[in-house]
DNA sequence: ACCTGAACACCGTTCAAGT
DNA sequence: ACCTGAACACCGTTCAAGT
């Protein structure tokens, strides 16, 4: 609508890439397509970002800033030491909500090779919660590694089909062939499959599984630090 | 040396790709470079594998077959229910040894979108150990998801610098700038850094951290199933 | 049955050039 | 200061063609 040309900035480039990824997947994010999204030539982007890696780092940073907004900042207050657990848990489940809005994000984050400033501040806040809760820095350090990607609200599934529908189809065909060699899995599918019902994610209810694994770790950490 | 030309097979293609990745990283694995490794043109590969994704699936399958050899097969024997924990732990730490021989493997596995037959048989054996140890299929199912990539012997690190040396340099420069905003991390580094010594992986001893997280989960699972 | 050559569409990125 | 056009090296992949 407007005739005036808004000048490009780093952040407009990042935002455009996020929108593109939300709409068409992270694979559709190329220098050329992001530029097109902004009504500009591909080479213009290089004036604002060093290269594609820097662009993708910026995309991740943008997502964590979205999380920061959601949380109303990374600052926290702890009145009692016992509060670290619900505080950490709530923060992580909020991170998960952000990730669920950008389903391509976990795979992207796993390919990152350097930390972004916002990410560091977020992780610092999680560590801060543990320390305020009575953890030593040493145990806090181990805890952060044990949580791993769960800090950001996603579980590292070993295989994540692009399209859950298509993946399920293919997997089932393959499972049928391999069935004789997979006695326990077949039995598990038989026993667990028809129990679900309200899960929107097929017979694996990822939210419940995420929380199960998260609580296993949080309970274990609680025991490590008080025991 | 030999004048006779060994005909190409799927498995020779996969093996060549593994060797190439070991030598030059997974980024160096292209259809053209794998073909060159085999003294053949790139297009010849398409006679044996459907496309590059299939090739990479085959590479992963090859690694898990290496693990199978190491374990002397995926079969297992459990005399007492209590044995599930050391059995599972040992199997996972063996998987980790295989991964340490192929440091590019975790990143590759994380990009996979479909299971491979050997991988399925391996995971089936882990599930079988749990069930033989007294787990219900339902709890076993949750346990497998909670373990996630740890089943294969690697931890879901959020950022894994390509070159640990280079990564450390850059990170430290960035940490210095951000230090005022990262009070807890700076404190942690100060307290934990000079404790290490025999760690070959910098001030983060990944092996110890992996085992800490693994045991946290195994202990938690033990409690879930007997409690 | 197995391999090849030429060609295509698509990348990220450079560089000198425009305004 | 900000953006562009043309060009380069490199991908995965096709297709018809060779032996």
Secondary-structure map with pairings?
2 copies of one chain form a homodimer.
Chain A: H1 10-24, H2 31-37, H3 52-71, H4 84-101, H5 105-111, H6 117-132, H7 137-147, H8 164-178, H9 183-192, H10 206-226
Helix pairs in contact in A: 1-2, 1-3, 3-4, 3-6, 4-6, 6-7, 7-10
Chain A binds a DNA duplex (19 and 19 nucleotides) through residues 7-8, 30-32, 40-44, 46-48, 51-52.
Explain this structure to me?
Two copies of one chain form a homodimer. Chain A has ten helices and no strands. Chain A has helices spanning 10-24, 31-37, 52-71, 84-101, 105-111, 117-132, 137-147, 164-178, 183-192, 206-226. The longest helix of chain A has 21 residues, at 206-226. The N and C termini of chain A lie far apart (64 Å). The radius of gyration of chain A is 21 Å and the shape is flat. Chain A is mostly helical. Residues 197-201 of chain A have low confidence and may be disordered. Chain A binds a DNA duplex (19 and 19 nucleotides) through loops.
Keywords:
homodimer; 227 residues; mainly alpha; flat; DNA-binding
């Amino acid at each position: 609508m407007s005739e005036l040309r808004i000048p490009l900035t780093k952040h407009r480039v990042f935002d455009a890439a996020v929108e593109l990824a939300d709409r068409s997947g992270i694979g559709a994010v190329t220098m050329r397509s992001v530029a097109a999204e902004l009504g500009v030539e591909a080479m213009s982007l290089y004036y604002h970002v060093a290269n594609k890696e820097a662009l993708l780092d910026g995309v991740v940073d943008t997502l964590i800033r979205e999380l920061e907004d959601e949380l109303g900042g990374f600052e926290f207050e702890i009145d009692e030491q016992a509060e670290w657990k619900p505080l950490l848990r709530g923060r992580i489940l909020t991170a998960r909500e952000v990730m669920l809005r950008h389903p391509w994000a976990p795979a992207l984050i796993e390919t990152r090779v350097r930390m972004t400033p916002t990410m560091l501040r977020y992780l610092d806040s999680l560590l801060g919660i543990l320390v305020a809760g009575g953890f030593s820095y040493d145990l806090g350090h181990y805890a952060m590694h044990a949580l791993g990607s769960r800090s950001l609200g996603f579980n590292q599934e070993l295989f994540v089909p692009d399209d859950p529908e298509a993946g399920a189809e293919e997997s089932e065909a393959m499972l049928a062939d391999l069935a004789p060699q997979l006695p326990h899995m077949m039995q598990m599918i038989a026993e667990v499959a028809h129990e679900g019902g309200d899960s929107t994610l097929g017979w694996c209810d990822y939210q419940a599984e995420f929380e199960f694994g998260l609580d296993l770790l949080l309970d274990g950490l609680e025991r490590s630090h008080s025991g």
